[in-house]
Amino acid sequence: MDFVPSPATLLAFTGASFLLAITPGPDMALMLSRTLAGGRRLGFATIAGCSVGLVCHALLAGFGLSALLAASATAFAVAKMVGAVYLLWLAWQALRHGSALSMAPGEATPQQPWAAFLTGLGINLTNPKVVLFFVTFLPQFVDPADPHAAGQMLFLGFWFLVVGTPTCCVIVLTAERFTAFMRRSRRLTRAFDMSFAGLMGGFALRLLLAQAR
């Protein structure tokens, strides 16, 4: 299957996707708050909504980047340069402000599962950072000169979902312990922030060096 990246590329992408999945952020905060307020059913319903949103983003980013690559290699290179700047901004925000994770059990009102699903879907679809993330993240693992680059970008977009969804399910299953541990350990939270900043900074540097060559 030519659209499947090399084992080394897939392994690197899987590791990066897992780190991003466990890094605190708005989606995780929403899943945890719903779980703590209404139980695991609401947590899983929220995950389902966010996952459907990610499918939409993966399709849009994959087809959009593929069309851009087919239309103009120069435009694709400019998009990657802009992406490098965005990744550096994400790294700086993580170091300066820390994780966007608010986990207060009493803040969320219990909902029906379908309402939690729609909330997760709506939050994900209306978050422009998710679009920008996919546009800047996927090209890191695809060679524009590869004739199967378009298929690889689509494959990686869905592979991110394959890695992230089970990880989120485990977090929901251990929500109470996870939140209690995160509240107790500021060092761990800071380690998440440093890891995220390092990952984003490394991707940005890789993009900038590739453009320089």
Please tell me about this protein's structure.
This protein has one domain. 80% of the residues lie in helices and 0% in strands. It has 9 helices and no strands. α2 (26-38) packs antiparallel against α3 and α4 packs antiparallel against α9. The two termini are 30 Å apart. Mean pLDDT is 77; it is low at 102-108.
Gross morphology: globular
- Write the element-wise H/E pattern from the N-terminal end onward: HHHHHHHHH
Average pLDDT across residues? 77
Number of helices: 9
Main sheet record: none
End-to-end separation in angstroms reads 30 Å
Q: What is the count of distinct domains?
A: 1
Helix content: over 70%
* Rg from alpha-carbon coordinates: 18 Å
Helices and strands: which structural class?
mainly alpha
Number of strands: 0
Uncertain residue ranges: 102-108
> What share of residues are in beta strands?
under 5%
